[in-house]
Design a protein that fits this description.
Distance between the termini: 38 Å
Number of helices: 13
Number of domains: 1
Largest sheet: 2 strands, antiparallel
Oligomer: single chain
Strand content: under 5%
Number of strands: 2
């Protein structure tokens, strides 16, 4: 919204500052952070009153989790509201990529909100039916990828770029819509599976957002993309503002989610944040890099898939409990140990992913 003040820069030179993505990214980060700090306590208080017993705890979960009974969920509302306020205030709302990513984020957030609502009202850890939820996510993601393909320059807009190679791209044509939708839905659900311990998901999400904030800025800048010999995607630089807003909102949420958590993110937040990261990766043509930077989320999702397949086919479990962070809990690791060590893994993977920008 404030970006429109650029039109009056000739009259008020100070308004020139709104041209710069870097300035607006920093401003969005601080706006979202302050918003969550200011309104977070009221949101937590309201959710605690409305939810009563809070988020249901898995009956087959680790014993230590039963002490968390009564903690309110739907904390993703704090993140999403801070994120939306900051984005709408500092983003260039004439940029189609901004609206595409916003629609995915809000759409996935609403699906997660309904899922959390069912869990709370039914006092059960089982919410929205898996197939129906995935179907809705695929519809939203498919429409978003279709829009991305239309906004970008063809045939590159429907192509898959490979890291470590300068000009190696494969035009997937209309199959790109299915591929992109898979990336977005996969990212949303992978983050959702990771959200099982206090602070475990939000910090890796912020690390990934910071990485893709840098990637989107470089990919959307003709000079930097030419220097790094990465594919130039006009307009995607504006997604840095959204990544900045997510980081700020995430930092504010972490203040309340730090052990012992005053509120849980819930599916409202995890699905939305994962979908947001997935849609940014598709828009910037860095879907494969997302699998590297978000490798922790991939590991969590793969552990569940392996566990289910192994049990159904052979009647045996590979892990003591899935997702894999619960496996380490069963091995005797303390929750803070798991969380901090997983954060370290997320940082290392982000550095590896960012190295692909130069190693070509």
């Amino acid at each position: 919204m404030l970006y429109l003040l650029v039109d009056f820069a000739d009259t008020v030179p100070l308004f020139n500052v709104f041209r710069y993505i870097t300035f607006r990214t920093g401003a969005a980060m601080m706006t979202a952070l302050v918003f969550v700090f200011l309104f977070g306590p009221q949101i937590i208080k309201s959710l605690r009153i409305r939810q009563g017993h809070g988020q249901p705890i898995r009956e087959d979960g680790p014993e230590g989790h039963f002490a968390k009974q009564g903690t309110p969920t739907m904390g993703g509302l704090m993140i999403l509201t801070g994120f939306l306020v900051a984005t709408l205030l500092w983003g260039n709302l004439t940029n189609p990529y901004v609206w595409i990513v916003l629609i995915v984020t809000v759409g996935f957030g609403l699906i997660g909100l309904y899922d959390d609502y069912l869990k709370v009202t039914k006092s059960s850890s089982k919410g929205f039916g898996g197939r129906q939820r995935i179907a809705l996510e695929l519809v939203i993601a498919g429409l978003a990828v279709f829009a991305i393909a239309q906004v970008g320059a063809k045939p590159f807009s429907t192509s898959l770029a490979f890291p470590f190679f300068k000009d190696f791209v494969i035009n997937l044509s209309w199959f790109f819509i299915a591929f992109g939708a898979f990336v977005i839905v996969g990212a949303g659900n992978a983050v959702n599976l990771t959200d099982g311990l206090d602070g475990l998901a939000i910090v890796p999400v912020m690390i990934a957002a910071a990485s893709f904030g840098m990637i989107s800025y470089l990919v959307g800048n003709a000079v930097f993309s030419d220097y790094l010999q990465i594919n130039f995607v006009p307009g995607t630089g504006e997604l840095s503002v959204l990544c900045g807003a997510l980081i700020g909102a995430g930092l504010g949420f972490l203040w309340f989610n730090a052990p012992p958590a005053s509120i849980f993110m819930g599916d409202t937040g995890s699905l939305a944040l994962g979908g947001m990261l997935g849609s940014v990766s598709v828009a910037t043509k860095h879907e494969i890099v997302l699998a590297i930077i978000g490798g922790l989320f991939v590991l969590e999702a793969v552990s569940v898939i392996v566990q289910v397949i192994s049990f159904q086919m052979f009647g045996k479990r590979v892990f003591k409990m899935a997702p894999i962070h619960h496996h380490f809990e069963q091995l005797g690791w303390k929750e803070p140990q798991i969380v901090v060590r997983f954060w370290i893994i997320a940082v290392v993977l982000a550095l590896i992913g960012l190295s692909t920008l130069k190693l070509r």
